[in-house]
Amino acid sequence: MIPFDKYHGAGNDFILIHKHLDRISDRSKLAIAQCNRENGIGADGILFLTIESTLSPPQITMDLRQPDGSVGPMCGNAARCAVKWASELLNKEEIILHTAAGTFPSKIVDRGDVQVEMEPSTFEPKSVPIISDIPFIDQDMFGLNITAINSGGVTQAVIFVDDITDPILLDKAFDIRHSNMFPKGTNVTFAQKIQNGFKQKTFERGVEGVTLACGTGACAIASVLHHSKQIKPNQSIRINQEGGEDLFVTINKTGSMILRGPAAKQFSGEIPQP
User: Which of 35, 81, 214, 219 is catalytic?
Assistant: First the structure.
């Protein structure tokens, strides 16, 4: 049997596995089976974790496999779940997280929230990636004003709307997600101005549906606002997630970001060895 822990970050939920990794010959196949909410445990992804506990601060490496079996280079909520897990396991407040998208210094902060330091977002077309000769900022696509950005290693199409509950947005999100403009696909993140912040809804690539939260999507919203000078450096912005909880993003003068929000354990269990 393979032991696992189940965590969620603001509603974005993950299966965490760190033991007997050598017994799992096909991580993507396991993710497809166990992320299924009808026949498996049910999750937005599986995190395969390795840990170097003797280092100071301790370091963990996260391999995220999404429900469709694809590799997720980074996920802000998955990162916070992994850091929370490592912090509770090792009784340490500071953790260095390694992912396919880079290395992220992280720590436990007030009320047990997890804070992750992230590199600046980029609008550069080749880095997004998007097929465009110039940065794709506030451009029309399927009748919506879209800004294409890579935030935390994840491609995002950010769209500010008046009503985030408009059902037509999900149809357009599917079209944008699969547009040929995005050679590797994209998350599609909608943002609506509300009192004291924004409300977010993200259609996630790899999950192929709306998730209850998206950390890199929150960072992308903040980055677009920062780029257009709608928020100031070092100003924390509250971004309410689809599941009802809040994430907070702060961007400093250099463009690097701090993502802060909750992460909590749900339960533990075992699955048969695949």
Answer: 214
